[in-house]
User: Which sequence fits this backbone?
């Protein structure tokens, strides 16, 4: 089946906890994602503002951009069949308390601290995955990566 790429990010709240990092890395492998690329990085505030520009003006925006620039993150390009929706499903709902109530086995339910400090990011569409992969990994060429795969795995 065709592989799809998504961007997954482990946010600063989770990177601060080695055991949570380990659990999330294991979850990625358990669910048969291919780790195409990964890197640890720290955002400047303007990276945060650029990435979350769509939320500018929302009540949580300042909190969000400060938090995302508050410490190291780990970013992954993940490949899998239906990677985008699959990773979103593993993450669970944006709001941690809703996640705990409606989907207790998700990452955000298990490890999230607050609605802002919610442990992980995942792209929500093919377009956002492309944009976000380029944002984090400007040197990565998805097309070339796909072309190196056996034809049956290509999108
Ligand atoms: P998601 O991360 O599930 O794609 P989003 O794109 O709507 O959610 O929002 C981006 C981030 O902004 C989210 O991970 C945490 C923060 N955020 C969203 N809604 C929030 C709220 N109601 N209160 C606090 N932070 C919020
Ligand atoms: Mg989003």
Assistant:
């Amino acid at each position: 089946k065709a592989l799809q790429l998504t961007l997954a990010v482990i946010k600063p709240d989770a990177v601060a906890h080695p055991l949570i990092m380990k659990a999330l890395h294991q979850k990625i492998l358990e669910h048969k994602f291919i780790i195409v690329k990964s890197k640890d990085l720290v955002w400047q505030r303007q990276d945060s503002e650029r990435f979350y520009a769509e939320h500018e003006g929302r009540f949580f925006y300042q909190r969000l951009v400060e938090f995302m620039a508050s410490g190291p993150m780990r970013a992954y390009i993940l490949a899998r069949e239906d990677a985008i929706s699959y990773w979103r499903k593993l993450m669970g709902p944006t709001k941690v308390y809703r996640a705990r109530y409606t989907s207790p086995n998700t990452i955000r339910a298990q490890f999230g601290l607050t609605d802002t400090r919610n442990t992980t990011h995942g792209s929500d569409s093919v377009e956002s995955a492309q944009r976000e992969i380029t944002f984090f990994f400007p040197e990565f060429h998805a097309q070339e990566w796909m072309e190196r795969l056996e034809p049956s795995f290509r999108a």
The mean pLDDT is 97. The two ends are 8 Å apart (CA to CA).
